[in-house]
Amino acid sequence: MANKRVIKVREALQQRNLDALLITSSINRRYLTGFTGSSGYVLITAEKAYLLTDFRYMTQAPQQAVGFDVVEHGPSVSQSLQELLQAQKATRLGFESDNLSFSAYNKYAEELAGVQLIPASGLVEQIRIIKDDEELAVMKEAADLADRTFMHMLEFIKPGLTELEVAIEMEFFMRKNGATSSSFDTIIASGERSALPHGVASERVIGSGDFVTMDFGALLNGYCSDITRTVAVGKPSDQLREIYDIVLEAQLNGLAKLGPGMTGREADALTRDIIAKYGYGEQFGHSTGHGLGMEVHEAPRLSKLSDDILKPGMVVTVEPGIYLPGVGGVRIEDDVVITETGIRRLTESPKDFIIL
Ligand code: ZN
Ligand code: ZN
User: Which ligand is the nearest neighbour of the Cα of 217?
Assistant: First the structure.
């Protein structure tokens, strides 16, 4: 029996007038089949769903990829594909044009005789944009782990530690508690470095009066969390304290008013307008948020330029910030699910101003 995700792919194939889709993205492969191996190809036709992989996975793949015909491919993947496509009389083959390299495309074009290769950009990604209950349950676990990590770090951080020592402790904590890895390079930006929106942890020593921005997440069972908190180590300057309160007000306004039917642009304005009202609009140079799932950045976008319409089941971040070069910065980020009426939070760490 075909799984719901495969049924959705078939609907999209019909809409795009394709006979079959070749999936080369490893994330889309895992999403559709549940197969966690490092190598494989998925071929979906109107009638059949195949997972092609090599001999190393011939025990694991059939166990994980329920509902798929698992095919062992030899040195030439094209040859196996050719046979399967011919058997299904499929000639119009969609491929993942955002994923397949130019050289791999040329190879398929040369080797798949009688098959027309048609770019099918974002086909599976558009299905992934709405999370089902099973996915939301895993994402809640990934978010809970990020929350527990933050609470652990409140006990750990003290003046004299380097940003790297803080980052390593965080990553160790997440791994010990079930994460496959961090979902991206942990950002620890302290003191004047907190003005860098993407300040990956450095050798800088954290001092008293510093703001420390931690932007991190756990990759758990294939899904990401992504949270940011800024805390003070010792009493900060009045200016830093002021921008903290503004970013918090903006973030809370975003969470309070975000909901289905809104465009990404309207969602972005919920935080941006508050920051601009206080005169810091120029110091908030990135977008309000992004979709989150198996990848840390996916559709939809919550930005000034986004026409994406928010729908129930989408998971997005809300992460306004203010960055003052040479002084410091603040960002506060949570992960939320869009519901029928508004949002439900996934990350729930405290964000009242904290001095360690
Ligand atoms: Zn983040
Ligand atoms: Zn983010």
Answer: 1
Which pLDDT band, with edges at 50, 70 and 90, does 2 fall under? low
* pLDDT tens-digit map of 151-206: 999 999 999 999 999 999 999 999 999 999 999 999 999 999 999 988 899 999 99
Q: Could you give the residue range(s) of every CATH 3.90.230.10 domain in the chain? A: 133-345
Please tell me the distance between residue 14's alpha carbon and the centre of ligand 1 in angstroms: 37
Dist. CA 332 → ligand 2 center (Å): 10
pLDDT in tens, 21-72: 999 999 999 999 999 999 999 999 999 999 999 999 999 999 999 999 999 9
Using the mean position of ligand 1's atoms as its centre, give its distance from the Cα of residue 10 in Å: 34
Report the CATH number of the 133-345 domain.
Answer: 3.90.230.10
Å from CA of 288 to ligand 2 middle: 9
Ligand that comes closest to the CA of residue 187: 1
102 alpha carbon to ligand 1 midpoint, in Å? 31
Numbered ranges of CATH 3.40.350.10 in the chain: 4-128
Mean pLDDT of all residues in 284-289: 97
Report how far residue 255's alpha carbon sits from residue 253's, in angstroms, rounded to the nearest whole number: 5
- Domain 4-128 = CATH 3.40.710.10: no
Q: What pLDDT does residue 106 have? A: 96
Nearest ligand to residue 216 Cα: 1
CA of 277 to the centre of ligand 2 (A): 23
Which numbered ligand comes closest to the C-alpha of 228? 1
Helix runs in the chain, H state only: 4-15, 26-33, 60-64, 77-87, 102-111, 123-128, 133-156, 163-176, 238-257, 264-277
- CA 119–ligand 1 middle distance (angstroms): 31
Distance of alpha carbon 184 from alpha carbon 174, whole angstroms: 12
